[in-house]
Design a protein that fits this description.
Length: about 475
C-alpha cells in the first residue's frame, strides 16, 4: 500500500504521498550500523537459513519472546558455556511464528512484514499456519545469487555503509573489500569502548591486544593515548569518517595527566573502582573530542543504556542479548566540560544519541540549537519507530530546526532490514512535514527541500561522506 502509515486526513495524506515520492528512490546513506564486514569481503558469502539471518542475530526479536517465557536456548541463541541449544531451524522458525502475535503494532512487526514483502516478495502473514511455507520461500531466495550480500547491497541502492569496529580490529575484511574489484563503498567506524571503559568485559586483555595491533607497548597513560591515536590514523586511512562511543551517562571531566595515569595504573593492576571507571570514561570522551578536532573524524556518543541489566542472561549468553534498558540521563551539566573546550571548534562534529526522550526538548535540542559542533542523532533503539520519530521531530525541531539533526541511520545488525528502516523514516518525515504544511507552518516548497535533507543530505553532510 503506497500510502501506508500516513495520516488519514485527506489533505495531509496526499501531501505526504507527494513528499514521499520525491525521496523514496534516493540512495541510502548508512553512516552508523553493525553489519558484519565479512558479508562483503567474500563474494560468495551466504547467510545460511532464515533463522541464521532473521532470528539468531536480532535481539529485537528474541527479547520480546523471552519476555513471554520463551527460553533463548529454544531459539538457537548460542551460550557462553558451550552448552547445547536448539539446532533444528525449522522448529525454531515454527516457534517464532507461533508467537508472532506478540509483535503486533511494534516496530519489529512492521520491519519484518515490510522486509518480507519488499525484499523477499512474501506477502503471507507470519503465523503458525504459514510458518513452513514462509521458511521455504525465504530459504529458496537465500540460495540464489541475487541474495548474496553484494548483490543485495546494489539492489538496496546503498551509496555507503559504515560498519562499527573495535579499536583493536585489524580491519582485514575491509582490506579484502578494498582489494577486490567490487565497487560497493563499505567504511569502518572506530569504536574504542572495549579499551576505554574500564568496566568493559576483558578490558585488561583488550589493552594487550591494543599494544599488539598498534605496535606500541601500552604500559602507561602516555603510551595508551599514543596507541589510540595510531589506531585512529589507521582507521582513517581505511576510509573511516567517524568514531563511536557508548557511555552509561553523558558525564565528562578533565583529569590531569597525573590523575589519568594513576587511574590507568590501577586499572592495569585490576584495582580500579567504579568511580575510577566513571571518571576515566568522562575524561576519555574529552580526549576523543580533542582527537576528533585534530583528525576530523566525526564523533558519535550513545548514552543512556543500562547494558546487561539481566545478570543471568549476561552470564549464560553474553552481551547484546536484549537485556539493555534505558535510564534517565542529564546532559547540560554533564557535557559542559567537553563543550567548554571543543563546543565552538569548526573542525569538530559531535552527534548525540540518547535513550531518555524526556531530554529531547529540555536539554538536547537547546544544546544543539546553540553549539556549532553538535548534531542530534535520530531516534535510537527503543524509539526507532513511527511514533518515536514523530515524537522526536515534535520535540526538537522547534528549538534546533532540522539542520541540526544528523539525518537518519539504521543502526542495525539485521542487514536485510536496512531498506525497510530507511523507508519508515522517509515515510514518517513525509507525514510529519505534511502536517506542518497543513497547519501553515511551512509551505510545500520548504517541505520538499526539508524531506530530501532528512532522507539523504543531512546524513551525508554530517558524516563527511562526500569523498
Amino acid at each position: 500500500m503506497h500510502n501506508r502509515y500516513f495520516s488519514s486526513e485527506p489533505a495531509q495524506n496526499q501531501m505526504a504521498v507527494d513528499l514521499y515520492d520525491t525521496v523514496k528512490d534516493l540512495p541510502l546513506i548508512c553512516p552508523h550500523g553493525h553489519v558484519d564486514p565479512r558479508l562483503f569481503s567474500d563474494p560468495d558469502y551466504q547467510f545460511g537459513s532464515p533463522v541464521d539471518l532473521l532470528i539468531i542475530p536480532d535481539h529485537y526479536i528474541f527479547r520480546m519472546l523471552y519476555s513471554q517465557g520463551i527460553a533463548l536456548d529454544s531459539l538457537g541463541i548460542p551460550r557462553q558455556d558451550g552448552e547445547p541449544v536448539e539446532v533444528d531451524h525449522r522448529k525454531i522458525w515454527q516457534l517464532v511464528c507461533d508467537n508472532w502475535h506478540l509483535f503486533r503494532a511494534t516496530p519489529t512487526g512492521i520491519w519484518i512484514r515490510d522486509e518480507l514483502a519488499d525484499v523477499f516478495g512474501i506477502t503471507n502473514k507470519m503465523n503458525s499456519a504459514n510458518a513452513q511455507a514462509i521458511y521455504d520461500a525465504i530459504d529458496e531466495k537465500l540460495k540464489s545469487d541475487d541474495f548474496r550480500p553484494r548483490a543485495m547491497f546494489d539492489r538496496f541502492n546503498i551509496e555507503v555503509l559504515a560498519t562499527t569496529d573495535a579499536a583493536t580490529d585489524t580491519l582485514s575484511h575491509h582490506q579484502a573489500i578494498l582489494d577486490s574489484d567490487w565497487k560497493g563503498r563499505i567504511v569502518p567506524t572506530f569504536r574504542p569502548d572495549s579499551v576505554v571503559n574500564l568496566d568493559f568485559d576483558g578490558w585488561r586483555d583488550n589493552i594487550d591486544t591494543l599494544s599488539e595491533v598498534s605496535g606500541i607497548s601500552v604500559t602507561n597513560y602516555k603510551s595508551y593515548i599514543q596507541a589510540l591515536e595510531q589506531r585512529r590514523e589507521f582507521f582513517k586511512s581505511m576510509g573511516a569518517t567517524a568514531t563511536d562511543h557508548a557511555a552509561l551517562i553523558a558525564y565528562t571531566e578533565v583529569l590531569s595527566d597525573a590523575e589519568a595515569e594513576s587511574i590507568f595504573q590501577r586499572a592495569l593492576a585490576g584495582e580500579a573502582t567504579d568511580k575510577d571507571a566513571v571518571r576515566f570514561t568522562g575524561h576519555m570522551l574529552i580526549e576523543m573530542a580533542r582527537m576528533s578536532s585534530e583528525d576530523g573524524l566525526v564523533m558519535q556518543l550513545h548514552v543512556g543504556s543500562f547494558r546487561n541489566h539481566n545478570p543471568i542472561i549476561h552470564q549464560h549468553f553474553g552481551r547484546d542479548k536484549g537485556a539493555d534498558i534505558p535510564i534517565a540521563t542529564e546532559w547540560t551539566k554533564s557535557l559542559k566540560p567537553l563543550l567548554e573546550r571543543y563546543g565552538n571548534d569548526p573542525n569538530m562534529t559531535l552527534v548525540l544519541f540518547n535513550l531518555d526522550e524526556t531530554t529531547y526538548s529540555r536539554e538536547m535540542a537547546p544544546l544543539a540549537g546553540h553549539y556549532p559542533i553538535l548534531r542530534l542523532g535520530p531516534p535510537w533503539w527503543f524509539f526507532d519507530s513511527w511514533m518515536g520519530m514523530h515524537r522526536f521531530l515534535d520535540a526538537v525541531v522547534e528549538t534546533a530546526g532540522i539542520y541540526n539533526i544528523a539525518g537518519f541511520n539504521d543502526d542495525t545488525r539485521a542487514y536485510p532490514s536496512i531498506p525497510t528502516r530507511h523507508d519508515v523514516w522517509r515515510r514518517a518525515c513525509s507525514d510529519w512535514l505534511a502536517g506542518q504544511v497543513v497547519r501553515g507552518f511551512i509551505d510545500m516548497d520548504d517541505a520538499n527541500e526539508m524531506v530530501k535533507a532528512l532522507a539523504y543530505d543531512l546524513a551525508k553532510q554530517t558524516y563527511r561522506l562526500d569523498g
